[in-house]
Design a protein that fits this description.
The complex is a heterodimer of chains A (310) and B (312). Chain A has 310 residues and is α+β, with helices and mostly antiparallel strands. In chain A, 23% of the residues lie in helices and 15% in strands. Chain A has 2 domains: 264 residues, 2-Layer Sandwich (Alpha-Beta Plaits), CATH 3.30.70; 30 residues. Chain A contains 8 helices and 10 strands. Chain B is mainly α and 312 residues long. The longest helix of chain B is centred in the last third of the chain and has 31 residues. Classes of the chains: A alpha+beta (310), B mainly alpha (312). At the A-B interface, strand 2, helix 3, helix 4, strand 6 and helix 8 of A face helix 2, helix 4, helix 5, helix 7 and helix 8 of B. The complex binds iron/sulfur cluster (SF4) (3 copies). The site of one iron/sulfur cluster has 14 residues of chain A, from helix 2 and helix 6. Chain B: Belongs to the NrfD family.
């Protein structure tokens, strides 16, 4: 994968905490497996995160994007539930009668059975997904941070130390998922901490604890990866062939996400990049080109001083 | 949700059919401000090339050009630092930039370049203006010139080392655009502030830098694929085009500047504006490419398709 023998910048990396300098007896790497197939869009995770982390509200405007008025992840929104309404072709998939009340008189319902292929309302499917910082194995935000404010924790997660951050904003465009942002009120960058202050006490992160359907599953990353593989097989057996995992592969462009997902459509439909790559993978090559250009500039200037005094 | 209307409209051009979440951006647009960051880029490049110009002018006995170069290097790099500090969310913590040295962060590396560079050039310029401690002046000027070439291109790496498609995907060509722009901007200042009799190297720098900048820009836009649109279309495209026109006009005037003071001033002003516009255009183009999910999704999809074709 990487030109780097020990994969410091990209490629599979067994233990990012050790790479960051923690002793091998550090706690296990933890993460999230977000199974969007069971998400009901209740936003309990969003609220729990705001409450636990004392994050201010983001304004109350209506976005026109289904039930998603949160709109995206940001400096004061560390969980974001996406809502996608899709028209589906009912001839290719089964519809489920969820027992919604209809307009017929009780007792007459046998005559009023609705043909699902003709009723537009039943041809919609909902995709809901609770997005969060991916706690990348190779985190671009952390790589580019000039102050050392962004760190790898002993749990293998990625966290901003607010008292060090000088608000340079470099981490913001570096993140391939558009997660981290700077807060206008404090000037500093902020994002999900994986509830670092709960982990130490052996607690589950607030968002996962609040999730009523276990769509957000928290735990040791290796366990979550096994569980996710099982879940995807299960769904495939049930005929949900569009189920796929996203961010689980240690061989992907960011070395695998600490927070990964089971999705029911392409990642970009949920606002996720289809093939994210940590930008610093190319950093050695960038510096080589910059050195070549710097040399070109120096030689050009020197050449301008050779020759007559015209 | 996919954007059927948009996709339909877009599939007309080069098969750019793509899906997105309500057309929302995937990555975050840089929070960096205008004019702070474009000014930081322009001034840093100007300072770097001016420092090299000063040392060579001194070696070849061109005292006026030496003075111009030293002053431009000091003012440029100091103003560049000021622009950077002004852009911070917490300016009082600027010194945290020097808290660690992180080779993976171009802004850390850059800070460790610009901090000594601006101090050295300030000392060299102070000595030049006051006429005091000429030996120290010469030593600091020469020491600064060791860092000078890096000053002309590290900012290109700073932009490219992000997820912004308009900057990352052109990381091979961008430093050459910046290098050319830096050389021509220093030449421009040299022409403006130095008597014509001594300004021959500055005129040549203006011409050579312009040529390098134009050639590298052309190559960059050619190789950027669908992302090249942000350098051609819309507001950012207009700025980039204006920069090119100014570069051509300025270079043309520089050809006449040997005989005419008016032409020299015209060339100097045009090329200064051109260099600033180049940085601003590139900055703006990157922002556009961050805002539109198309530039994130389409190239990534193409990459996946190519990988699939290669392995399958
Ligand atoms: S998702 Fe973005 S903010 Fe989170 S660790 Fe990865 S690069 Fe950093
Ligand atoms: S804004 Fe803060 S956390 Fe982000 S890169 Fe700058 S110093 Fe680091
Ligand atoms: S882990 Fe904690 S900080 Fe992160 S999204 Fe969940 S509740 Fe918020």
């Amino acid at each position: 994968m990487s030109a780097d023998g020990d994969n410091r910048l990209s490629g599979p990396l067994a233990d990012p905490a050790v790479e960051a300098g923690y002793p091998p007896e550090h706690p296990e790497r933890v993460g999230f497996f977000t199974d969007t197939s069971v998400c009901i869009g209740c936003k309990a995770c969003e609220v729990a995160c705001k409450e636990w982390n004392l994050l201010p509200e983001d304004g109350l405007e209506l976005s026109g994007m289904s039930y998603d008025n949160t709109q995206d992840l940001g400096a004061t929104t560390w969980r974001h539930v996406a809502f996608v309404e899709q028209r589906i072709d009912t001839t290719t998939r089964e519809t489920v009668d969820i027992g919604m009340p209809d307009m017929t008189r009780p007792g007459d319902s046998s005559t009023a059975a609705v043909d699902p292929t003709e009723d537009a309302a039943t041809q919609i499917r909902w995709l809901m997904s609770s997005d969060v910082c991916k706690h990348c194995t190779h985190a671009a935000c952390l790589d580019v941070c000039p102050t050392g404010a962004l760190i790898r924790t002993e749990y293998g997660t990625v966290m901003v130390q607010d008292d060090v951050c000088n608000g340079c904003g470099y981490c913001v465009p570096a993140c391939p998922y558009g997660v981290i942002d700077t807060r206008p009120d404090t000037g500093g960058a902020s994002k999900c901490t994986m509830c670092q202050d709960r982990l130490g006490a052996g607690e589950t992160p607030a968002c996962a604890a609040a999730c009523p359907t276990e769509s957000i599953q928290y735990g040791p990353l290796d366990e979550l990866r096994d569980r996710a593989a099982q879940r995807v097989d299960e769904l495939h057996e049930q005929g949900v062939t569009e189920a796929r995992l996203y961010g689980h592969e240690p061989t992907d462009g960011v070395g695998g996400d600490g927070a990964f997902f089971l999705l029911l459509d392409e990642p970009e439909v949920y606002g996720l990049p289809p093939d994210p790559v940590v930008t610093t993978r190319d950093l050695p090559s960038m510096w080589k080109h910059a050195a070549g250009a710097a040399l070109t500039a120096a030689v050009t200037i020197a050449a301008c001083f050779v020759g007559g005094k015209r | 949700m996919s954007r059927p209307d948009d996709s339909a409209e877009r599939s007309a051009e080069a098969g750019n059919d793509f899906r997105s979440y309500y057309g929302q951006p995937i990555i975050k647009e840089p929070t960096w401000k205008v004019p702070d960051v474009p000014a930081y880029l322009y001034l840093g490049g100007l300072a770097g090339a001016s420092s090299s110009m000063a040392v060579l002018a001194e070696l070849t006995g061109r005292t006026h050009l030496n003075r111009t170069g030293r002053v431009a290097a000091a003012v440029g790099s100091t103003a560049s630092v000021v622009a950077l500090i002004h852009d911070l969310g917490r300016p009082a913590r600027f010194l945290n930039m020097l808290r660690v040295f992180k080779p993976t962060s171009p802004l850390s590396v850059g800070s460790w370049i610009i901090a000594p560079f601006s101090s050295l050039t300030a000392a060299a310029a102070a000595s030049e203006i006051t006429g005091r401690l000429p030996l120290i002046g010469r030593l600091t000027s020469i020491s600064a010139s060791v860092l000078a070439p890096a000053m002309t291109t590290y900012t290109a790496v700073l932009l490219s080392d992000t997820a912004v498609p308009g900057w990352h995907e052109v990381y091979r060509e961008l430093p050459f655009v910046f290098a050319g722009s830096a050389v021509s901007s220093a030449g421009a200042v040299g022409m403006l502030a130095t008597p014509r009799g001594e300004a021959a190297p500055a005129r040549r720098m203006a011409l050579a830098g312009s040529a390098l900048e134009l050639a590298a820009s052309h190559r960059m836009e050619q190789r950027a694929g669908v992302i090249g649109e942000v350098y051609r279309e819309g507001r950012s495209g207009k700025v980039v085009r204006a920069a090119k026109v100014l570069t051509c006009v300025g270079a043309g005037a520089a050809l006449l500047a040997r005989r005419s003071r008016v032409a020299a001033i015209g060339a100097g002003l045009c090329l200064t504006a051109a260099s600033a516009a180049t940085r601003y255009g590139i900055f703006e183009a990157g922002r556009v490419s961050a805002r539109d999910p198309k530039y994130t999704v389409v190239p990534q999809r193409e990459r996946l398709a190519n990988e699939g074709a290669a392995s399958g």
